[in-house]
Design brief:
- The chain has one helix spanning 160-167; strands spanning 9-14, 20-25, 28-33, 39-40, 50-51, 53-62, 76-78, 83-86, 97-99, 106-108, 118-122, 138-141, 144-145, 148-149, 156-158, 175-180.
- It has a single domain (3-180), classed as L,D-transpeptidase catalytic domain-like, CATH 2.40.440.10.
- The model has no long low-confidence stretch (mean pLDDT 97).
- It is built from 1 helix and 16 strands.
- A hairpin with a 2-residue loop joins β2 (20-25) and β3 (28-33).
- The protein is mostly beta strands.
- The strands form 4 sheets. Strands 1, 2, 3, 6, 7, 11, 12, 15 and 16 form a 9-stranded mixed β-sheet that branches. Strands 9-8-10 form a 3-stranded antiparallel β-sheet, with no helix packed on it. The protein has a two-stranded parallel sheet with strand order 4-5.
Length: 181
């Protein structure tokens, strides 16, 4: 795939309060999971909302013990068992990667479920980091239920085949735009 074939933008849209939306990548449309309180215009830590905005795709992390590195032009690295992401607003490493054990609250990136087998770090609240404005907002794999998707804690999530399709067309200049539809 050439640089010209890579997506400039991925659009995620949903009506107010919806925990599911549509992710549009080029001419393809995929059902996606959103936060338990839907898309929010003002993101706050622990509100369960997927923030509205335009976010760069910073890097892909993957579970090398479960999956091969997928085809993508994004920078990527394998997740290690001690990897975490700080979600404590009063900690100097808030919304940054950390190593477990960690002194403050930090999400584990090495999970028993498969949600973070593929996880893209989104550039939300990271330049600069604002304490309390949301952390660990990722693009990752969805948990499917008989009735659809389980809501996320504020992330955007896809089924594995759909994620692989989208990742193959993403590069360092691709952004994710999240908006109410």
């Amino acid at each position: 795939m050439t640089r010209a074939d890579l997506l400039d933008e991925i659009l995620v849209t949903a009506p107010p309060g919806s925990t599911t939306g549509i992710l549009i990548a080029g001419n393809d449309r995929f059902d996606c999971a959103l936060g338990r309180t839907g898309i929010l215009m003002e993101k706050r830590e622990s509100d369960g909302g997927t923030p509205a905005g335009c976010f760069p795709l910073r890097a892909l992390r993957y579970r090398a013990d479960r999956l091969a590195a997928p085809a993508t032009a994004l920078p990527y690295a394998a997740i290690e068992p001690q990897d975490g992401w700080c979600d404590a607003p009063d900690d100097p490493n808030y919304n940054r990667p950390v190593k477990h054990p960690y002194r403050a609250s930090a999400e584990r990136m090495w999970r028993d479920d498969h949600l973070y087998d593929l996880v893209v770090i989104l550039g939300q609240n990271d330049d600069p980091v604002v304490p309390g404005a949301g952390s660990a907002i990722f693009f990752h794999l969805a948990k499917e239920l008989e009735t659809g998707f389980r809501p996320t804690e504020g992330c955007v999530a896809l089924r594995l085949p759909d994620m692989l399709n989208v990742l193959a067309r993403c590069g360092p200049r691709t952004v994710m735009r999240v908006e109410l539809g």
